Amino acid sequence: MAKDTKVSLRSLNFYQVFLRQHTQEGTFISLIKDLPRIKTLGMDFVYLLPIHPIGKAHRKGSVGSPYSIQDYYAVNPEFGTEADFKTLLDAAHQEGLKVMIDVVYNHTSHDAVLLNEHPEWYYRKEGKLAGKVGDWWDITDLDFSHPGLWDYLINALKNWSILGVDGFRCDVAPVVPQAFWLKARQEISKINPDTVWLAESIHGEFCKYIRDMGFESMSDSETFEAFDICYDYDIHGDFLSYVQGKSPLNDWLKAMFKQEYIFPKNYIKLRNLENHDQERIAHWIKDPVRLLNITGLLFFLKGATLIYAGQEYGVDHRPDLFEVDKVDMSIKHVEIRNLIHRMSHLKKDSLFQVGVYQIHMQDKEAAVISYENKNSLTVGIFNVGNTQGEVKVNVPDGTYQNILYPNQVVVKDGKLILQEKPIVLFAIKQTV
């Protein structure tokens, strides 16, 4: 972890917005009207996919990938002007929301302003512009052996920070030198010491692939030295294997628990069931009971939480990255939305930041997780398999109120009977 990372960031809730797809207009100004709804959902950050102009050369699809950036110092004119973006920032801050933008510093488009100004700052193979990853043919990689490149990119970050941006999500951060990120963090802290740094850390197999080709790629532990929060792609394969029905729930949970001793004590992972690069959770899980429970479980996992716009309504279609493909926000899966509202506010309790975290393995397809300190205890029971029977819980026998729904549960002989809906119990330890 970065030395000044606060564990209170474990209670953060991020709402990811693909602006092109989020509103009919697809503009900064049109997003403002949705901010009160996002805030009411319990979110702390609006995280925007890249807001910069998209390259036209070697473009994928008809409108191109937002990750093929033409100018780090400008906004995409399709979204509006810089003044419009500033208006959005101010409106978000007035609503009590912070704004994070996507930073893509591994590569640019083939017609980037930077390529025209400093072609010597680009990676080349056999004298030609190239990328380290073969199928990313719409972009070309930067070469961080040039100190001038560092200054150019950090100055861009400074501009956005001065404008009012509260955080940076850094695309494929491990393939950019750690020293660069450490310097960038130090420089931005002079403008806003509360800036939140989120790394798109990468799958282990991808890390090895990059290294095997002779390039540098940071492990999660190395990435954590410069960042506050890392993606949980280190165990994403275990998660996918579970939701696709290829392996049991406990395999994913066991992989997750290993993070407790692999990473520093104050590590923070970004917990998410879906994002712009991954299929919607509702694509994999069709059973509404299972979907409700895995949504509740998401907020009970140790770390910050990400919701991809539309997830709160059970949307099962992932928007195309290269075309106009609007999210159908009219789908009102009210039960999921209401659960996210409850869980996101519950997550603010300090137990989720500093409490002792335990995953209690079961012989049923249910997740039981607890947090406790010397005074209090909370336990979450999530019937992700929509199964029946009993599970073991670490609370004394008695009758408890499920704080998520108006029903009581009975703990007898250290067990309780599973219900369809998620269960969260709170107890004061002196009185139980």
Q: Explain this structure to me?
A:
- Residues 16-347 form the Glycosyl hydrolase family 13 catalytic domain.
- It comes from Paracholeplasma manati.
- InterPro entries: Bac_A_amyl_C (IPR041331), GH (IPR017853), GH13_cat_dom (IPR006047), Glyco_hydro_b (IPR013780).
- By secondary structure, the protein is of the alpha/beta class.
- The chain has 2 domains: 7-353, Alpha-Beta Barrel (TIM Barrel); 359-431, Immunoglobulin-like (Sandwich), CATH 2.60.40.
- It has 15 helices and 20 strands.
- It has helices spanning 19-22, 28-32, 35-40, 82-94, 113-117, 147-163, 178-189, 204-212, 220-224, 236-243, 249-262, 281-284, 288-300, 334-346, 351-354, and strands spanning 13-17, 45-48, 98-103, 107-109, 124-125, 128-129, 139-141, 167-170, 196-199, 229-231, 269-271, 304-308, 356-360, 367-372, 376-382, 390-392, 398-402, 407-411, 415-417, 423-428.
- An 8-stranded parallel beta barrel has the order 1-2-3-8-9-10-11-12. Strands 13-14-15-20 form a 4-stranded antiparallel beta sheet. A two-stranded antiparallel sheet has the order 4-7.
- A hairpin with a 3-residue loop joins strand 14 and strand 15 (376-382).
- Helix 10 (236-243) runs antiparallel to helix 11 (249-262) and helix 13 (288-300) packs parallel to helix 14.
- The mean pLDDT is 96.
